[in-house]
């Protein structure tokens, strides 16, 4: 098994992203990484989930608080191999063989493959990506020189994994209620207080922390961003203690903790009154990572379902030969491939904004936030749905821990919560529509793209009709009271998601006969109700879409 080689859709879409030298290098590296994820990393992930979860060593033999987090050796090897492959480092520094930096498309392709085996570990990778982004964009030259080489390490220096600590008990998603204080003492800022859900605690070398300086206003405007080393130069703890590790349903690989600051030395990053806004930029990056992780779980669930249905016989023939099973697998395949195209389309736009946020137009920034919000919501929900379908196709075996499906379900569920629940994302969409007329920007963008599609004219008409209907719907909602608008916020997001996915599917449809069948089926399933027939469209296209000859048995 090789997660990259198996995924023809991924290989095809990536070919359009890079010039020949980079594409050749990336294809080779992703093939190597895809094989590693499907074998060693996957085996280690199973061990970590069942037997090798992080453990807190609170005190040493003398009774001193050392707040050390134990990680199993297999997990440490996965850390070494993944960062060594440049999943974070090559976003900010040159690839030795090519003399140029990588890009987010390459990093997210790695994250997609990794998440098919170990989505729990992709959380620390995400946090390290966010840490590198914040240091590179906003830290002083002195801080960059001291910490960035370690955060970007691919093996040449000691690796400092990153973390971003926002959540506090009294606030949760209401970050403006945060209370952790930054006090200026003896020439340095010192942090005092508690972060209630701090992922990668104890495993990170440096954390990016929101804290409130003395005399600053309440709410998000009073929050500043600080770089906080986990340890001092002598390896002693930097005024940090871990109260306990969280006992989580899934993603057990990542140590999530309640962290206390007792005078931790901290370094101000950027302008003091811009901390919340810096962190929101990092949050958007983390939301893209969340969508990538969800997409990876969708793909692994699909692979497991297809392979099991091909192997398992019931009532005299393979499960995959039964029409209702075939229909489920076709729908899963179509949805997963379209979602993959949409997320990498989103990444193209994200790259432009993330590389030069000050140079992006306001329209580009608004559409970037909108696309990320609606697709983070959709992919997280679909990851849960896909794992459910995979379990059901396995029958009783799907509920047994000998198979990967229970772990996929447990790992998928947190992705609906991390980086904003559906309600929080709905409010984000509503804010963008009211403040920036994002619905107009969105529909104009989609119509421009639909105008360029030269296949499947009937399906294009269906999506154009959906755009017009959404425009009318949004106008009706946005004149309602604020409470009424919040009621419809998630519906607005879902309608835009369908239009975005359908538009990308139609663009995909112009790239070969099989892709055209995928696009046609996807759009019709979204916007029409098929009349009963002896040969439904999904079954008519099943052999081409499932490509059963390539099923791994």
Provide key terms for this protein.
5-stranded mixed beta barrel, 56% helix, alpha+beta, single chain, 18 helices, globular, disordered C terminus, 553 residues
Major sheet: size, sense and barrel closure? 5 strands, mixed, barrel
Strand order of the largest sheet: 6-7-11-9-8
* N-to-C CA distance: 10 Å
Strand content: 5-15%
Structural overview:
This protein is an alpha+beta fold and 553 residues long. The chain is 56% helix and 14% strand. The chain is built from 18 helices and 13 strands. The strands form 4 sheets. The protein has a 5-stranded mixed barrel. Helix 10 packs antiparallel against helix 11. The radius of gyration is 24 Å and the shape is globular. Mean pLDDT is 96; it is low at 548-553.
What is the secondary structure topology, with strand pairs?
Layout (H helix, E strand, L loop, with lengths): L2 H4 L1 H8 L4 H31 L4 E5 L5 E6 L2 H12 L9 E2 L4 E2 L2 H12 L3 H20 L2 H11 L10 E4 L15 E5 L2 E12 L6 E8 L9 E7 L10 E6 L10 E14 L5 H37 L1 E2 L2 E2 L4 H33 L6 H33 L10 H9 L8 H15 L1 H14 L5 H21 L4 H28 L3 H15 L9 H4 L1 H5 L7
Helix pairs in contact: 3-4, 3-5, 5-8, 6-7, 6-8, 8-9, 8-10, 8-11, 9-10, 9-15, 9-16, 10-11, 10-12, 10-15, 12-15, 13-14, 13-15, 14-15, 14-16, 15-16
């Amino acid at each position: 098994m090789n997660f990259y080689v198996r995924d023809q859709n991924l290989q095809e879409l990536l070919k359009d992203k890079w010039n020949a030298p980079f594409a050749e290098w990336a294809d080779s590296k992703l093939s190597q990484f895809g094989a590693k994820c499907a074998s060693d990393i996957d085996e280690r992930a199973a061990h970590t989930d069942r037997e090798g979860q992080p453990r807190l060593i609170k005190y040493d033999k003398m009774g001193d608080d050392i707040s050390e987090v134990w990680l199993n050796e297999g997990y440490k090897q996965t850390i070494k191999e993944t960062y060594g492959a440049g999943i974070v480092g090559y976003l900010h520094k040159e690839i030795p063989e090519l003399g140029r930096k990588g890009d987010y498309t390459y990093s997210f392709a790695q994250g997609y493959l990794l998440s098919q085996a170990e989505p729990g570990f992709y959380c620390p990778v995400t946090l390290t990506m966010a840490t590198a982004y914040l240091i590179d964009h906003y830290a002083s030259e002195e801080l960059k020189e001291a910490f960035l080489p370690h955060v970007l390490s691919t093996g040449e220096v000691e690796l400092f994994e990153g973390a971003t600590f926002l959540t506090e008990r009294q606030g949760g998603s209401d970050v403006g209620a945060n209370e952790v204080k930054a006090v200026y003492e003896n020439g340095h800022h010192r942090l005092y207080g508690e972060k209630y859900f701090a992922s990668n605690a104890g495993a990170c070398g440096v954390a990016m922390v929101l804290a409130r300086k003395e005399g600053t206003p309440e709410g998000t405007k009073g929050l500043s961003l600080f770089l906080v080393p986990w340890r001092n130069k002598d390896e002693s703890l930097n005024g940090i203690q871990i109260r306990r590790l969280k006992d989580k349903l899934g993603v057990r690989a990542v140590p999530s903790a309640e962290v206390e600051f007792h005078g931790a030395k901290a370094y101000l990053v950027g302008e003091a009154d811009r901390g919340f806004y810096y962190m929101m930029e990092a949050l958007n990056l983390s939301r893209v990572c969340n969508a990538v992780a969800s997409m990876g779980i969708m793909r692994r669930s699909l692979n497991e379902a297809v392979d099991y249905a091909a192997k398992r016989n019931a009532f005299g023939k393979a499960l995959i030969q039964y029409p209702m099973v075939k229909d489920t697998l076709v729908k899963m395949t179509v949805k997963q491939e379209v979602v993959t195209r949409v997320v990498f389309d989103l990444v193209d736009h994200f790259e432009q904004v993330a590389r030069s946020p000050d140079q992006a137009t306001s329209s580009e920034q608004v559409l970037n936030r909108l696309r990320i919000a609606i697709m983070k919501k959709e992919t997280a929900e679909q990851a849960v749905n896909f794992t459910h379908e995979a379990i059901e196709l396995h029958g009783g075996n799907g509920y047994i821990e000998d198979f990967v499906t229970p772990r996929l379900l447990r790992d998928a569920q947190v992705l609906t919560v991390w980086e904003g629940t559906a309600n929080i994302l709905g409010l984000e969409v509503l804010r963008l529509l009211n403040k920036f007329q994002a619905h107009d920007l969105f529909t104009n963008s989609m119509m421009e793209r639909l105008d360029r599609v030269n296949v499947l004219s009937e399906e294009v008409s269906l999506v154009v009709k959906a755009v017009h209907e959404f425009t009318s719907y949004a106008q009706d909602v946005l004149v309602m009271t604020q409470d009424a608008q919040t009621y419809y916020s998630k519906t607005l997001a879902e309608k835009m998601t369908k239009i975005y996915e359908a538009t990308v599917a139609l663009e995909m449809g112009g790239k070969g006969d099989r892709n055209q069948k995928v696009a046609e089926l996807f759009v019709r399933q979204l916007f029409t109700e098929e009349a009963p027939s002896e040969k439904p469209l999904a079954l008519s296209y099943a052999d081409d879409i499932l490509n059963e000859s390539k099923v791994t048995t």
